[in-house]
Amino acid sequence: MKAMYPGSFDPITFGHLDVIRRAAGMVDVLHVVVMRNPSKKYFFTTEERMKLVKESVKGISNVVVSMHEGLLVDFAKKNGIKVVIRGLRAVTDFEYELQMANANRKLLPELETVFFMTDEKYSFISSTLVKEVATLGGDISQWVPEPVMRAFKDKIRRD
């Protein structure tokens, strides 16, 4: 069975990695899909986000990292995927995720969405929080893997 875990991963956090490890343990192949939305402003470029995700999932043998721009259902159809993995940190995430799951099912009826509750120790971590703390000079080491910490330091130093 193949599944996909889509996200902007700007940046990837320990919360994302928790979901990836757990989902990868349940499927034959897990596609971690770095989504690109031209109308969205990202801290890291698509290429940087892809590189950080690849470095962060090294050692999880059944994970494939890809990039996609466009409808999630198109990636699912192209790759023969029938399951979308989504992480939920809190009740506030559920409403948006439910809308997306229902929209995706209307567009591709055989596509199921499976929700993973994020481990409580990661439930407050968001990419937005990480970016804010990092750009203000705070310590993000407890929230992100080493490659992400290095990337922030390099990017902030350059800017």
Would you give an account of this structure?
The protein has 159 residues and is α/β, with parallel strands linked by helices. The chain has a single domain, classed as 3-Layer(aba) Sandwich (Rossmann fold). It is 43% helix and 19% strand. It contains six helices and five strands. The chain has helices at 14-24, 46-56, 72-79, 91-107, 127-135, 146-158, and strands at 2-7, 29-35, 63-68, 83-88, 112-117. It has a five-stranded parallel β-sheet with strand order 3-2-1-4-5, sandwiched between helices. α2 runs antiparallel to α6 (146-158). It starts with a strand and ends with a helix.
Order of helices and strands: EHEHEHEHEHH
Low-confidence blocks of residues:
none
Q: What is the count of DSSP helices, taking H or I runs of 4+ residues?
A: 6
CATH architecture: 3-Layer(aba) Sandwich
Sheet with most strands = 5 strands, parallel
Structural class: alpha/beta
Relevant CATH superfamily: HUPs
Residue share in helices?
Answer: 40-55%
CATH topology: Rossmann fold
Assigned CATH class: Alpha Beta
